[in-house]
Design brief:
The chain has about 450 residues and is mainly alpha-helical. Helix content is about 60%, strand content about 0%. The structure holds flavin-adenine dinucleotide.
């Protein structure tokens, strides 16, 4: 399916003595007299896993960015249809259609969002390493949760996004020389390895549940769950439920977006934890399994909020000339998560009535405006990643936009076509070995039938 160049082999050893100094003894150790010395902290090796997951988040952002670069370039070259009204005399580039804007620009926004989330996760990991070198492991549970959640979030987003980028290129996206099938297959595997995503979401919720237990006991939760404690206090005062008061352009403000995402995450986290103890006849593990889909939603909402918050905090430290376009990207990301027909779990933004139908209409209008604003920058936003043609390895995603010329040139270079050219434009070997014998067999059969040599028995 993918990783064709990788040999996933294994090794078995029998009666082999490994010198003590060849053991990986970064944490636990075997002393010269054979005594086993435990690691200073039982979960110390988790930090390596956190690091690997952080690397996966970064690499899947770049893979998705590659797929989106190819699809965006090709969409400016590929002409199809006579315009949105079907009344033009000539065909238009497919980038003229709103659905293509929506899909590609929201994918571009996802690439940037994953990259900013990775930066925040990486910075947190580096803090953890510094603290652990002083034998301080208090941040390990948080970093473990963050890397698990972001790994699940980013790899799913990237795998689904690359597949949609492939679909944005129609049939050409299915051709190997587009470079897209390889990217898609590579990304799909990331949802499984280094922690299967559905299992990762449960690990995130285990952390959240501990925080909720602290909140319910009147203790301080971890810092990243302070918003859940605020919601809990507010809800205790106002049982009627809360409503979002934003309208129109308010939805472009990072604070408004963050408050919508925080409301949704805290509500889901509290509801999920309440559900776990709602039926005394269920054991904790039965309750966990029964309500697993709600737990997963809550975990995902917590990570969505982290992503939005970390991007927004990066805005203040980026070059002022870049801020407007980054602001548009984060708004597009946050708002399309609410109204996109293919968004994961969009229902959780509205199921408690926090957002009204009129507000959803405002959001749809804003998304259309954001698409118009971002459209002239679509190519620049993908060129900004500075992929070389060699690294994209895509005939339809070349920097110069010569998709069809490159496709033709690469096709001519295929060994099968080189050989055909050397034998007068026809692949004589293929004809002789495969097609001619088949036709001869068919011809012989036909002649036998005509000569009445083949009897067909009918069973009535
Ligand atoms: C390309 C690739 C490279 C890999 N490389 C390595 C490697 O180098 N080294 C290595 O050790 N491993 C490697 N793996 C293995 C990988 O880590 C496992 O495939 C992965 O952890 C999933 O485990 P599994 O295959 O046993 O799937 P399973 O655990 O059988 O999962 C199958 C399904 O069951 C569901 N499921 C399982 N448990 C639960 C649960 N508790 N709750 C809810 N749902 C559950 C999952 O969501 C999934 O949908 C690689 C895998 C791939 C695809």
């Amino acid at each position: 399916m993918s990783y064709n160049g990788t040999c996933n082999g294994y090794a078995l050893f029998n009666q082999v003595r490994i010198p003590r100094t060849h053991l990986l003894m970064g944490n636990a150790a075997v002393l010269r007299d054979g005594t086993y010395k435990k690691a200073p902290h039982s979960k110390l090796s988790y930090a390596t896993m956190v690091h690997v997951r952080t690397i996966i988040i970064q690499s899947c952002a770049w893979q998705l960015a590659k797929a989106v670069t190819i699809a965006t370039r090709y969409s400016h070259v590929r002409e199809q249809g006579l315009g949105p009204n079907g009344d033009l005399a000539h065909q238009l580039p497919i980038m003229s259609y709103k659905s293509q804007h929506f899909r590609l620009l929201s994918l571009i926004s996802k690439c940037y969002v994953i990259l900013f989330a990775w930066k925040a996760c990486d910075a947190s990991y580096r803090d953890l390493v510094r603290q652990q070198s002083n034998n301080n492991h208090v941040m390990l549970p948080y970093n473990h949760m963050l890397a698990a959640g972001l790994k699940a979030w980013a790899t799913s987003l990237a795998a689904d996004g690359a597949e949609d980028a492939r679909k944005c290129c129609g049939g050409q996206g299915y051709v190997n020389t587009s470079g897209l099938p390889d990217i898609v297959n590579t990304l799909v595997a990331t949802t499984t390895f280094e922690g299967e995503n559905w299992v990762m979401w449960q690990q995130v919720f285990r952390y959240l549940l501990k925080g909720v237990t602290s909140i319910k006991a009147g203790e301080s939760p971890p810092k990243d769950m302070a918003y859940v404690a605020d919601h809990h206090r507010l809800h205790a005062r106002n049982q009627q439920g809360q409503r979002c008061t934003a309208y129109g352009d308010d939805f472009l403000q990072p604070e408004t977006l963050i408050s919508i995402y925080a409301h949704r995450a805290s509500r889901l986290i509290m509801e999920a934890s309440d559900l776990l103890s709602s039926n005394p006849n269920l054991s904790p593990s039965e309750a966990w399994n029964t309500h697993m889909m709600v737990l997963v939603s809550a975990a995902r909402a917590h990570i969505d909020l982290f992503v939005l918050t970390s991007f927004s905090s990066h805005l203040s430290i980026t070059d002022t000339s870049l801020r407007p376009v980054l602001q548009q990207l984060i708004s597009l990301f946050a708002l399309t998560n609410i109204i996109s027909p293919s968004a994961t779990d969009a229902i959780s933004f509205i199921e408690d009535g926090y957002l009204s139908s009129a507000q959803l209409r405002d959001i749809r209008e804003l998304v259309n405006k954001l698409l118009e604003q971002l459209l002239p920058n679509a190519i620049a936003l993908t060129d900004a990643w500075a992929f070389t043609d060699a690294s994209l390895c895509s005939a339809i995603g070349q920097f110069d936009g010569n998709a069809y010329e490159t496709l033709m040139s690469w096709t001519r270079q295929l060994p099968i076509n080189i050989e055909a050219r050397q034998t007068g434009g026809v692949l004589v070997r293929g004809w002789k070995e495969s097609i001619e014998p088949m036709l001869r067999r068919a011809d012989g059969l036909k002649r036998k039938r005509e000569g009445g040599e083949v009897r067909v028995k009918l069973k009535l």
